[in-house]
Design brief:
The complex is a heterodimer of chains A (202) and B (130). Chain A is mainly α and 202 residues long. Chain A has one domain: Serine Threonine Protein Phosphatase 5, Tetratricopeptide repeat (Alpha Horseshoe), CATH 1.25.40.340. Chain A contains 9 helices and no strands. Chain B has 130 residues and is α/β, with parallel strands linked by helices. Chain B has a single domain, classed as Rossmann fold (3-Layer(aba) Sandwich). Chain B contains 5 helices and 4 strands, in the order βαβαβαβαα. In chain B, α1 links the parallel β1 and β2. In chain B, α1 packs across α4 and α4 runs antiparallel to α5. The longest helix of chain B has 13 residues. The radius of gyration of chain B is 13 Å and the shape is globular. Chain B starts with a strand and ends in a 9-residue tail after the last helix. The relative contact order of chain B is 0.22. The chains are: A mainly alpha (202), B alpha/beta (130). The interface between A and B is medium-sized, with 16 and 17 residues.
C-alpha cells in the first residue's frame, strides 16, 4: 500500500465512520455511556482535516499523527486505545513511503498488544479485542494482503455477532452485567467497519 | 511534597472529592482535580490529566486517583506520555476514601510510595459489619 492509497483509505474511513456515527452511538447507549460513535467520528474528522498535509509525510509519520489526533480530540476510552495503537503501527512502519503487508500485520499485532496492556483486556470480555484478535489471526495466516484482509473482515464480522452472546466484564458495559447479552459490542463493531473499508479499498 | 491528581468523568466529582479531602489539610496546595472534558461535559481526557500532573508536581512526584473505566485508561496514557519526566503512580482504590487518606499522608511530607500505600489501604475500609 503506497502513501496515496493510505491517505485515500483514511479519508474513506472518516466518511464511513461519520455515516455510522448514530448507529455506533445507539449500540453504545444500550450497554455503555453512549458516546462511541460521536468519539470515533470526532477523531476521524480531525484526521480528515489533516489529510492534505499528509502528502509530505512518511507512512509511519502519518499513522503516528493519526494516533496523536485521537489522543488529543477523542474523549472516552477509544481515544487513548486507538490513538496508542495507531502510534505503535506508525513506529513499526517507520520512515517509509509505503506500507508492506508484513509491516502492517506486525504493527497491528503490536497495536493490539498495546490496547490490551492499557485496557487490561483479554479475549471474551465483550470489547474491541474480541474482533481484533480473530482478524489478526487470519492476517497472520495469509501471505498477501488481498487474502489476509478479506479473511480478517469475515472473521471480524463473525466475532462482532459473537459479542452478542457474551457478558461484558470490561468497561462501562460490565456494570450492565448479564443484561448486556443480546447487544453487540460497539467497539468491536467500529473496528469491523474500519477493517471493511480497508478491505474494499485494497 | 508529593502532589495528588483526582481523575473523574465528571468535573463535579473531581472537584468535590478534592474539596472534601482538603478539609483534612486546608494548607495543602498540590491537589489538582482533572474531571470531565475541557468544555465541562462528561468524559475522560488524557491531555487534561497530563496538564494536571504537571500542575501537581513540585519535583517529588504525583499520586493519581482515578474513577471508572476510561479515567483509568486516560491516566495510564497520560503517565506514558510523561515519559518518566517525574515519578507518577496511580493508586488502586476508591477515589473518595483514597483521596482523604492520600491528602493526609502527602500534606505531612510522606514520599510517593507512602501516599500510594495510604490511598490503597483505604480500599479495605468497611461500611458495615459483615
Amino acid at each position: 500500500m503506497n502513501k496515496t492509497k493510505l491517505i485515500e483509505i483514511l479519508g474513506r474511513t472518516a466518511d464511513v465512520i461519520e455515516e455510522n456515527k448514530l448507529y455506533l452511538t445507539e449500540l453504545d447507549t444500550e450497554i455503555g455511556d453512549g458516546d462511541h460513535g460521536i468519539n470515533m467520528a470526532r477523531g476521524f474528522a480531525a484526521v480528515k482535516e489533516k489529510l492534505s498535509g499528509y502528502e509530505e509525510m512518511s507512512c509511519g509519520a502519518i499513522f503516528i499523527d493519526v494516533g496523536k489526533m485521537f489522543i488529543k480530540v477523542v474523549a472516552g476510552s477509544s481515544g487513548p486505545l486507538y490513538g496508542s495503537a495507531f502510534k505503535v503501527i506508525g513506529k513499526t512502519v517507520g520512515d517509509s513511503e509505503e506500507v508492506t503487508y508484513i509491516q502492517f500485520v506486525e504493527g497491528f499485532e503490536k497495536g493490539i498488544a498495546k490496547i490490551q496492556a492499557l485496557g487490561m483486556a483479554k479475549e471474551g470480555e465483550k470489547t474491541m479485542i474480541d474482533a481484533m484478535l480473530p482478524a489478526l489471526r487470519e492476517m497472520q495466516k495469509a501471505d498477501i494482503a488481498a487474502d489476509g484482509i478479506k479473511n480478517a473482515v469475515a472473521a471480524a464480522e463473525k466475532a462482532v455477532e459473537h459479542t452478542k452472546e457474551i457478558i461484558a466484564t470490561k468497561g462501562r458495559a460490565s456494570y450492565v452485567g448479564e443484561r448486556s447479552i443480546g447487544h453487540q459490542d460497539p467497539g468491536a463493531t467500529s473496528f469491523y467497519i474500519m477493517l471493511k473499508v480497508l478491505s474494499e479499498a485494497l | 511534597m508529593v502532589g495528588i491528581v483526582v481523575v473523574s468523568h465528571s468535573c463535579k466529582i473531581a472537584e468535590g472529592v478534592c474539596e472534601l479531602a482538603l478539609q483534612m489539610a486546608p494548607e495543602y496546595k498540590q491537589m489538582i482535580p482533572a474531571g470531565g472534558l475541557v468544555d465541562g461535559s462528561l468524559g475522560a481526557d488524557a491531555m487534561r490529566v497530563l496538564d494536571a500532573l504537571h500542575s501537581a508536581n513540585d519535583g517529588d512526584g504525583v499520586a493519581v486517583l482515578a474513577d471508572i473505566g476510561s479515567s483509568v485508561i486516560s491516566t495510564e496514557l497520560a503517565i506514558e506520555l510523561l515519559e518518566d519526566e517525574f515519578p507518577v503512580r496511580m493508586a488502586d482504590c476508591p477515589i473518595v476514601e483514597g483521596a482523604v487518606a492520600a491528602v493526609i499522608e502527602a500534606s505531612v511530607g510522606a514520599p510517593l510510595d507512602g501516599v500510594i500505600a495510604a490511598a490503597e489501604e483505604a480500599r479495605g475500609a468497611r461500611k458495615k459489619e459483615i
